[in-house]
UniProtKB/TrEMBL annotation:
InterPro entries according to UniProt: FAD-dep_OxRdtase, FAD/NAD-bd_sf
Name of protein: FAD dependent oxidoreductase domain-containing protein
Signal sequence extent: none
Organism: Aliiglaciecola lipolytica E3
One term under GO cellular component: cytoplasm
All residue ranges annotated as the FAD dependent oxidoreductase domain in the record: 41-401
Keywords: Oxidoreductase
GO terms, molecular function: oxidoreductase activity
Amino acid sequence: MYDPIVEPYPQSWQQYPDSYWARSITTFPETTSLVNDIQADVAIIGAGYTGLSCAYHLAKQYGKSVVVLEANDPGWGCSGRNAGFVLPGTGRLSLTDMEVKWGEAKAYGVFQEYMESIDCVNDFIEKGQIDCDKTPGGYLKLAHKRAKVAGLREQAEKLNERYGESVSFVCSKDVSRSFLKSANMYGGIYFDKSFAVNPMKLVLGYYQMATEAGVKTFSNSPVINWQSKSNHQCLYTQNGRVTAEKVIIASNGYTGKKMHSLVNNCHFPVLSSIIVTRPLSSEELESIQIKAGLMAMDTRRMKYYYRLLPDNRILFGGRGAISGKKADNPKHKKRLTEGLKQTFPILNGIEIDYFWSGWVSATYDNYPRIHHNKDKTVYYSMGYCGSGLAFSSLAGKRLAQSMYEPELLPDLPFWQSPLRKFPFSRFRRVGLSAYYTLASLRD
Ligand SMILES: Cc1cc2nc3c(=O)[nH]c(=O)nc-3n(C[C@H](O)[C@H](O)[C@H](O)COP(=O)(O)OP(=O)(O)OC[C@H]3O[C@@H](n4cnc5c(N)ncnc54)[C@H](O)[C@@H]3O)c2cc1C
């Protein structure tokens, strides 16, 4: 599998992973690759939610000519292979962490932005009439140990004061009564605004909306070279070149090791993996009683996340391998099946029909950035950690605003500083390996 820490960019002509989502698409859009020299106001690298949302807003709202260059096909990165949780959050900071770091007002401002990111996905779905199997069901963050309950309860109570019923604390009895029956869960925080989608159908919907707005997307056209001139930027692909006033890096976890000095060594691509079971029998469903559309994640350091799919399979995800070379090693699939068994003992031994992985982008200080170089010709948005579906959709819009209407940006830390470089970046993987060992002991 492509490895962003080792390789400079993803090779072209790679298939989508054999995922449940890719199999759900009957006809993929016909795309072309770049084979000549063209010009645009803005060139965007990466056709996932970030790049396509930004492209759409630049074309639709600001009338810009926009070219998107994608190494493979739209949604080939994380956007076509995630779990489809539309969540109020990104990064790894809790509300309490944010209050300590930025004070109460900013922390709530960030949470407001998270809620808006869900509205942003909804707007896309409504405007583009995207048929992405949207299923309301809410998001439940579950304590996997009694010791985690108090923190979740405190967060829920604070958020409940501001957002009313849409955020609430649920005790362990209510979890089993209304949400799911699982081993070892001790209550949690419930966000009822969250919903589940088919992420591949969603990203292809964004692609279609961007195309209809006049955006030109070229697939199988990785950017392999980049020259910054005094008044323009040149991006080179194998067979063509785009000259643009401004460039946006929207390659997130798939950003290769030498993309641009603004982002090199400023993020850490980490693998997350998913298994999907065969459809559950009615006895199995009766035993686990998981609510349709519900998305659940636990409080482990190495989190498990899961949901029931529309055809009654369980999607179950968690950490993946350390390197791209080992991504498909069966031991990672086995680790997830163990996690599934711990969560729902009745599913011990169930057949697994799908297993795939993707690169999420972690940052040094656990939250993403939407930033630019000094002369505002190169912009980026990245570092959503494991949860960027909703946030990257809004980040695309914010990127467009930060270029052409920066006064509209809410006063939040995401766009007020650049990404921080990882110290000793060469040793990131050694650190990750040690972290995984320690975390599994502590979990
Ligand atoms: C297994 C898994 C499960 C997840 N589940 C969830 C979830 O349920 N909810 C949630 O909120 N988040 C989830 N995420 C995270 C979420 O999917 C991402 O945060 C989000 O999709 C990021 O979108 P993006 O557009 O920024 O990047 P991507 O969708 O990764 O797109 C980046 C694109 O850039 C392209 N690219 C890279 N380099 C070049 C180059 N040199 N030239 C041209 N193109 C290039 C890549 O080919 C890629 O298609 C999950 C991630 C994974 C891996």
